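User: I'll paste a sequence; please echo it back and then give the predicted structure.

Assistant: Echoing your sequence first, then the prediction.
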Amino acid sequence: MFQFVVVLEYITIIGLFVECWVSLRKWSSKLHSYLFFSCVANLVYNVGFLLELRARNQETYVMALKFAYFGRIWIGLSLFLFVMEVCRIKLPMWLTGLLAGAHAAMYASILNVESNDLYYDYMKFEMQGDFPHLIHSGGILYHLQTVLTVLYILFGVGLIIITLIREHNPIAKKRYAMVTIAMSAIGVAYITYILKLIPLAHAFDVTIFGFAVGTLFLLIAIFRYKMLDAVALARNYVVDELSEGIIVVDGEGKITYCNNPAIRLFPELGKGNLSGRSAMSVIERIRFAIRCEEPLKLNDRIYTPKTNALLQNGVTVGTLYVIVDDSDHYRYLEELREQKAIADGANKAKSQFLANMSHEIRTPINAILGMDEMVLRESSEPEIRDYAEDIWTSGKTLLALVNDILDFSKVEEGKMEIIPVTYEPGQMVSDIVNMIRVRAAAKGLRFEVDLDYNIPRLLKGDEIRIKQCALNLLNNAVKYTEKGTVSLKISFRETDKDHIELEFVIKDTGVGIRPEDMEDLFSPFKRIDEKKNRSIEGTGLGITITKRLLELMGSDLNVKSEFGNGSEFSFAVIQEIMSRETVGEYAKKSDGTREKKRIYKELFHAPDARILVIDDIRMNLTVITKLLKNNQMMIDTALSGPEGIKKAEENDYDIIFIDHLMPEMDGVETLKYLKEIPESENTIYIALTANAIAGAREMYLEEGFTDYISKPVEGELLEKLIMSYLPAEKLLDTPDSV
């Protein structure tokens, strides 16, 4: 008998190890937590009991007893909590905590069982045949633990039987039946041991037989009836009286559950054979509707099928299909979807047109700015340099506006970024005045500027966006004013010790705005009083972009206008103070800095270096050649991809610049051929293109280019890029900058 008990213990321990592993592996809910808690407690108890069987004296037996009770003391509570979760009954947190505290107190008394009588008030070790045995009488905590365990068993078995009776799903009923048998076996064994109902109960703890049987039936519930399976758990929580049809499909594509509304919609599912051909045809029909994004028409109603993956430990183990009745709303939603598709198509076409036009405009700007930089480099006449400086400033502003058109779709979607930098407001105002003064003078208008010279010399904010807003408003003022004055007033007020509110006020004596036209003022691509102003150029984007940019900077555009007597536009933006020194006389300051800023000195000489520039626009080749002529490199040019490939086959180049959008063979295709040329592995390939949209750099690097530079090209940036890739031995000493 002793050997049989030992073998049974080993089998039980192995079974408990399996339960622990399964519950831990499939951990996704409280059910798994309580089962794992119960299994660990049971496992510890059985290991401790096995040690008790090996004991041959009281000291060894008591040590094994303490170890066993570390598990046994929690078995009843953990099984009770497990059954509560199976039956979907929530215990109050305070009650769970109180019970856990009581069990912890009991175990504390067991740890010191030799010197207190709270758990055992008497104990004596003896051998009964091969079985070691501890004769004892229980103390107050022993009786408390006995009462709690009996209550756990009675309540647990009662609740699981009630749940079993109420359940209609045959698989779920079998699952609950297995749990009922497991709990009942443990309960019968425990009561038999407490009341000593059989002679064997006097020799050793017969509850191990109950735990062995309980472990067996829990394993059957887990593996045979998938008690811990995510699909099975989902099925337990489905309510048959929902208005939506519910169908659960397992990982193998078989239907494992459907509720009553689903059966009413698909009578094929109510015939009891969920794996039959007719049932599977229902799933195929639903999947087809989902793929086609089409509704299901059933019983003169319109239903929308939806799908959700059932996940277990991050792995998809099944699919939940929900059939929703959308009869009252679907037609409206379908019409809305069609209109949205039309609007999206029109918006995409507009954005593509703007992007293409912006790309085309950047090409001549590249030539203008490139040649203008050559004038600034080579001319020493002050008057000529002043003209060139104005061209440079205006060209850069034009480039900024083109970039805004390129990103207009982002403006419409509210995705334009505000990038704060440290800047000089005096220089910013100087740039604005230099650009507007010429236009105002050409129309015979007075342009008045009132700048508060106490504005801090250095501020932090998005200078480009602020300048763009001011220029948009000033350009409109000049366009819509035939005689009189256009004025710009810039002032500030301190909001706290680190910030100011920089205010711009633009006034004109132009045509003004009718009250009824005010609502169209901020409409993109629309100009007010179109008939009267038909001779005035412009797209109507300026005010719209200005308003949205100001909103991104936490500001707004204020408008006052009297038809026939002019308008006033104003805005204020919060800026961070970076220097307490004031602006002073902005005109003198800007005149003194511009001359110095544009004096050029090449950054390096490399007479042994050789580069190739491939571009289908001859003027672009001229610009690059002129910008780099003082660097003493050997520069070859090609007007097409095939011509560039031919030259690369005949010569060894350190760097090859390749334009992207070229006829016959574009830059990406050209690059692929160039990389196939023998002995070209050391050549650096750089994309030289007017494509400046977001993500362009990443796109070119992914295509195989080494680097990327956008047009219009700035000479200094181009030189720095070349310096970073030329071999060090080909770079001579860098000349000192002036």
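Residues 615 and 621 are 7 Å apart (CA to CA). Residues 530-540, 586-597 have pLDDT under 50 and may be disordered.
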